[in-house]
Amino acid sequence: MPSKIFDVNTQLAFYGAYHSNKINVMIHMVFVPVLIWTFQVMASSLAVPSFIPEVHYTLNNYLRFDLNFAAIHAGLYIAYYFILEPTAALLYMPQAIISLLTATAYSKGSGHITNAAILHAGSWVAQFLGHGLAEGRAPALFDNLIGATVLAPFFVHLEIMFMLGYKPEMHKRLVNDVGKEIAKIRKAQGDKRRAAAAKSS
């Protein structure tokens, strides 16, 4: 997978193989944006190293930009999404910007970091329940922590775009690739079970 880190089909097929259940996908559609936003709230409160220039711009009580860890995090994610699928990344930009600006503004309020932390933890619980009860398998982050956390927002965004008719050929190809990936995973699990059974007999 590292050699195909910038291949959109490979990356989304990997992540999609862990999110084939519709209920689990819906849970992620709700809680992945919440996870990103609450992370940005918490990251906005971290001290920024002195070598990073101070940039602060307050639009109003609800929108604020600071050059901080949340902004750097958002910038890196968006840059990666542009490499994977430029058009979808461009369409994701408004959501990403609003999330960052509102999270940064919210982080300045008293007690808001604690609220974000509670909501962040609850969102993780919801997703683990989605995987355990609906998907019936462990989440992707157990196999690829960085890949799963980076891909999650873009995967959710693309799922919504596909529902709206975005690039049907790409969607069809992705569904096919996800099916192949799931088949490989099930075969590997079956081989492992058979090997364990043969060893214990």
TrEMBL record:
<feature type="transmembrane region" description="Helical">
    <location>
        <begin position="113"/>
        <end position="133"/>
    </location>
</feature>
<dbReference type="Pfam" id="PF06127">
    <property type="entry name" value="Mpo1-like"/>
</dbReference>
<protein>
    <recommendedName>
        <fullName>DUF962-domain-containing protein</fullName>
    </recommendedName>
</protein>
<keyword id="KW-0472">Membrane</keyword>
<feature type="transmembrane region" description="Helical">
    <location>
        <begin position="25"/>
        <end position="53"/>
    </location>
</feature>
<dbReference type="GO" id="GO:0016020">
    <property type="term" value="C:membrane"/>
</dbReference>
<dbReference type="InterPro" id="IPR009305">
    <property type="entry name" value="Mpo1-like"/>
</dbReference>
<keyword id="KW-0812">Transmembrane</keyword>
<dbReference type="GO" id="GO:0046521">
    <property type="term" value="P:sphingoid catabolic process"/>
</dbReference>
<feature type="transmembrane region" description="Helical">
    <location>
        <begin position="65"/>
        <end position="83"/>
    </location>
</feature>
<keyword id="KW-1133">Transmembrane helix</keyword>
<dbReference type="GO" id="GO:0005783">
    <property type="term" value="C:endoplasmic reticulum"/>
</dbReference>
<feature type="transmembrane region" description="Helical">
    <location>
        <begin position="145"/>
        <end position="166"/>
    </location>
</feature>
